[in-house]
């Protein structure tokens, strides 16, 4: 069942879900039905795609529309501020956002002349005509990382924009480390296009970037140790804006190499789940394409 807020006269319409067709993810099938219901009742210029666990400030929609109109955007997306209260969340969530910004540099995403495309599924304002021109939700019907897949299709239609904000917040809790592991592992291997070579390159790249410098700083000598210390300090410094956004101690920056080990493990676990035929598991459904 998909809930869509559509219009002032009738603030809320509940759309009864129909059977999930083969090849569709449950979320995107629900989104398609919600969009169809909205377009059947109205002729909206914009559609707000959001998640049930997202809380918006009262002026979020007007801000999104204003920003889209001012810059002629076909997709305007805000990365929500995730819950960051217990230890598991404090260890993982800022690093997850940090790594997301490295994978999808916002300046590149927001540059019309750069092919990089990304979005945050919790808050996406989509221009209806651009979505139709891109082939509708059908164009990404089987995507696990549906927000970024939609961004790729929409950037072909015009400029897109991605930002980080306090005005949109996720209230989904991650009570323990296993919850976060499952969240990351669900789509990590899909992000690597189910490629063993990309998996190997990612693990090696993470090790060289985040593990070698601390090892050199702690166990090397001379210039190698100095280089390790400086590199470790620089990565901790790069992490500071995200830590400030989540109001955490700057000392968490020193722990970034250790946190990166966790994400390496989750990525390997994602590949294992895929090989075992359990890839993209969500709410009891396996959504990744079959392992060959």
Plain-language structure description:
- The structure is a single chain.
- This protein has 292 residues and is an alpha+beta fold.
- The chain folds into two domains: 45-170, Spore Coat Polysaccharide Biosynthesis Protein SpsA, Chain A; 177-275, no CATH class.
- It is 50% helix and 13% strand.
- It contains eleven helices and seven strands.
- It has helices at residues 26-41, 60-71, 87-103, 106-109, 128-133, 146-155, 177-191, 196-219, 222-238, 240-245, 256-275, and strands spanning 2-4, 13-15, 46-50, 54-56, 75-81, 123-127, 160-170.
- The strands form two sheets. A five-stranded mixed sheet has the order 3-6-5-7-4, with helices on both faces.
- A hairpin with an 8-residue loop joins strand 1 and strand 2 (13-15).
- Helix 7 (177-191) crosses helix 11 (256-275) and helix 8 (196-219) packs across helix 9 (222-238).
- The longest helix has 24 residues, at 196-219.
- The radius of gyration is 20 Å and the shape is globular.
- 31% of the residues are buried.
- The mean pLDDT is 91.
């Amino acid at each position: 069942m998909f809930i869509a807020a559509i219009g002032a006269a009738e603030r809320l319409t509940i759309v009864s879900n129909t059977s999930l067709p083969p090849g569709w993810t449950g979320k995107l099938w629900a989104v398609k039905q919600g969009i169809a219901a909205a377009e059947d009742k109205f002729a909206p210029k914009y559609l707000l795609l959001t998640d049930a666990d997202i809380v918006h400030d009262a002026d979020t929609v007007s801000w999104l529309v204003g920003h889209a109109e001012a810059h002629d955007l076909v997709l305007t997306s805000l990365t929500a501020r995730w819950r960051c209260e217990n230890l598991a969340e404090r260890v993982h969530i800022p690093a997850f956002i940090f790594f997301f910004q490295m994978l999808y540099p916002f300046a590149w995403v927001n540059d019309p002349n750069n092919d990089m495309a990304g979005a945050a599924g919790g808050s996406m304002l989509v221009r209806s005509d651009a979505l139709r021109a891109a082939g509708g939700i059908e164009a990404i019907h089987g995507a696990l990382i549906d927000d970024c897949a939609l961004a790729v299709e929409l950037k072909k239609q015009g400029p897109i924009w991605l930002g980080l904000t306090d005005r949109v917040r996720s209230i989904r809790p991650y009570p323990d480390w296993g919850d976060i592991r499952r969240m990351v592992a669900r789509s990590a291997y899909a992000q690597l296009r189910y490629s063993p070579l990309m998996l190997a390159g990612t693990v090696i790249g993470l090790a060289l970037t985040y593990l070698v410098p601390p090892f050199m700083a702690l166990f090397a000598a001379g210039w190698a140790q100095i280089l390790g210390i400086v590199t470790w300090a620089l990565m901790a410094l790069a992490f500071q804006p995200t830590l400030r956004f989540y109001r955490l101690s700057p000392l968490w920056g020193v722990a970034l190499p250790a946190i990166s080990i966790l994400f390496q493990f989750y990525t390997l676990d994602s590949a294992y789940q895929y090989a075992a035929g359990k890839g993209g598991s969500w709410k009891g459904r396996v959504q990744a394409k079959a392992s060959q």
